[in-house]
Amino acid sequence: MGSVEFSPSVSPGEGPVRRIAINKDELVTQPLEGIETVYDIVSYAARTHGNRNAIGWRDVVKVVEEEKEVKKIVDGKETVATKKWKFFELSDYKYMNYIDVQTAVSEISRAFISFGLSKGDVFSVYAQTRYGV
Question: Can you tell me the distance from the alpha carbon of 44 to that of 23, in angstroms, rounded to the nearest whole number?
Fold first, then answer.
């Protein structure tokens, strides 16, 4: 399929602006016809991928701390410093399938609605960036 030139270069030394050939005349605004919201994306993924693995993670089983001596040069002289290193023993992978993700997203959505959030509201979520129980 490839890309095609959309507009010529603006400055010397730069190449032209290129777009994928099937969308050369306009930018893509949605992944597929009928998919316009996050809800649509999650529903489509659950419908098309069902019980396949969607999100994977590993739990920290054990943290091992070791102290090691490290040589470094300070003011031109070699010195030895003690550094603490942490190593993590991790579990095997655990997974949520697409249907479980859809359920979780629906529960979170209902919680936001119960807090009074609606279309147009802006908020931030401060949380760990991994699945946690």
Answer: 22
